[in-house]
Amino acid sequence: MRLTVPIPRPPIGPDPLRRIDVPDDLDAVTTTADEVDPRDVGMTRDQIETIWAGAQQLYRSGVHPAVQLCLRREGQVVLDRALGHAEGNGPLDQPDDPKVLATPETPFVIYSASKAITAVVAHLLDDRNVIHLGDRVSEYIPEYAKHGKDAITIAHVLSHRAGVPNVPKEAFDLDLIDQPERIIEILCDAKPSTRPGKLLSYHAVSGGFIIAEIVKRATGRDIRQVLAEEILDPLGFRWGNFGVAEGDVDAVGLAYLTGAPIVPPISTLLTRALGVGVKEVTELSNDPRFLTGIVPAANTVTSGQELARFFDMLGQGGELDGIRVLEARTVRRALAEQSYLELDLTLGVPLRYSLGFMLGAQRLSLYGPDTELAFGHLGFTNIIGWADPERALAGGLITSGKPVIYPEILDLWMLMREIGRQVPKVERTALGLSV
């Protein structure tokens, strides 16, 4: 069901809403991976197809060259499909440009959803007594204590309460990616905007670099190596780490600037949150230097199916396919609420945060209605990885368009709402939460 009336495209000239050409036959641009019979996990084929119809409607908005959606229920894949193109059908691409279909296996950058991955590494090291989340950052990075930042703890960073949400623009120089010591110098020189723990203010970039440096100093390994050796490799992941090998750059789906141009005050808010403008973020994320570097808050590269699988591991209490990588109590602690619908001073909206995750809610939730126990993270702009233990559900939604304002934003909201409505709750969850 469409909630918005499509805005006609101009007969000549560029589309001011920067939309792609949406084919009439969506089956021609749809690819499907293996899916189990929904009846095996307490669902129906009609429920799955109702959800998929919502994903198709999101694609028809024209601002997402590619859409991937994977849903796992009780540890099994019930929906794993992709729509559109990984390359060649952007708003400025020509009709005769080579087009590459997106598949469920195509990797994409997931931007801020990377923060959840970074947080899991921190929780893993705490789980193994290598670090402790209550420790001060300066215990691992002594030079970070400058300008009154000595009281900032790792937990403050994970919960966006460290008081250092922004970084200078020079930290976004891609030539610095291979110079993490220089980035840390910039962060150490930064002055806090508020007292640690006092206020909630989303740390779009700074927190990831801080956690990564703590990981490196505590283990002697970079965060990419720790993530691979301790989580991804044991579970058999192909993607899911920070950046990719040089030989895999061409396999990564492109990001496209789509939607209406943004103007103040929204553009000002986003530039303050991201450190650079939306156009620059999109261009940076397609750059090979970004794709091969380590940007812990922003450059995890993965597919919808692997994003869902990662969150399924968390939703099942730190275990997947019989392999345990985290203790269930560690996952429960990671989900402990730190902010209850408190106004986020960076994003300007009230949110629920835990130690690294955006939490669901009874009504106003990223994950659909009645999802108070759901958790996950949003990625720029319409990317969501999440788990909903009450429904034995984990999902990965990846879109390659980067719109900020577009009329069909309600289609995203309705898709997530439909997932929450169509997937029934279960009696008991892997995290030990009775429902």
Based on CA atoms alone, the radius of gyration comes out at 21 Å
The biggest sheet amounts to: 8 strands, antiparallel
Strand content: 5-15%
Order of helices and strands: EHEEEEHHHHHEHHHEHEEHEEEEEEH
Structure description:
This protein is an alpha+beta fold and 435 residues long. The chain contains twelve helices and 15 strands. Strands 1, 2, 3, 4, 12, 13, 14 and 15 form an eight-stranded antiparallel beta sheet that branches. Strands 5-7-6 form a three-stranded antiparallel beta sheet. Helix 2 runs parallel beside helix 5 (206-219). The longest helix has 16 residues, at 45-60. The protein is globular and about 60 Å long. The chain starts with 29 loop residues before the first strand and ends in a 13-residue tail after the last helix.
